Amino acid sequence: MKKFNAIITITLRKGILDVQGKTVEHALQATDFPMISQLRIGKYVELTVQAKDSDAAEAIVEKACSKLIANPIMEDYSIEILEPLWENS
Amino acid sequence: MNYGVVQFPGSNCDHDALFASALSEGSQSQLLWHKDTSIPKGIDCIIIPGGFSYGDYLRCGAIARFSPIMREVVTFANRGGLVMGICNGFQILTEAGLLPGVLLKNTSLNFVCKDVYLSVVNSATPFTSTLSQQSVIRIPIAHGEGNYYATEETIKELESNNRVVFRYSDSEGRITESSNPNGSINNIAGIINARGNVLGMMPHPERYSDAVLGCKDGHAIFESLELFTSSNSAATVDMATH
Fold this sequence. Notes:
Chain A is an alpha+beta fold.
């Protein structure tokens, strides 16, 4: 089994108004950053998962995301599986 | 009439709900602990009260949904038992899949704590039968995430099957943008499941359940539940004796 680090990024689904993101965007534009737009705020989750390979790790994290970590009605998420931390036989 | 009020770590309207649901003569109410793995016999209605269960960590209602009592609540609801989720309770019921949609952050980004008017748009439910159709009640809200959202398909299904029970309105019952406190689609303040035994609403009827609290418009919801339960048990008795 190997141990993988996973990084999950969660954002509100496209089409849902991200009021928090809009407020921050407006505050930036009103100060020194008129060149900034399309700002969206999300959540960042990191975890380690034990699995036989990176595909298996991703499948586990995917299941955890759809069950609890994200709510698919309102959120999109992306999963990044990093190189294994260690291996034991 | 026997009510059970679920108590999670972080619930803060549990005692209000306990008080309000025991006001009518013949009604009793008891607390149900979140770690309980069964629901006491004889409970007619379970109330999931407001608050910040599990600190509202991750998303409101997301963690509470996995507590042992919720498995029992889902079974209870699937058997036709009455379940009412108020505020955080509504959020928990959507996370648990007993009601569709989700409650997003208020569009104002503010926590809104004030009285609102609700138009009763479905009075043919066990929760609203003592109210008249299109009547207006005054009930307080207190939430930061009460902005009801669901996919277009779900909204269509709710609307066409008369599953919206309350809408935010003005004091005359007009459904206006300015009477919408949180950005909810179509001013939705409360919905019911397809079977008609699970209600979720953001406003707090338990806070306006007795004249001494300044208003008792919310009491009608408890009276409706009591009427429904007594006529149902009368029917059961009737069937048993004939």
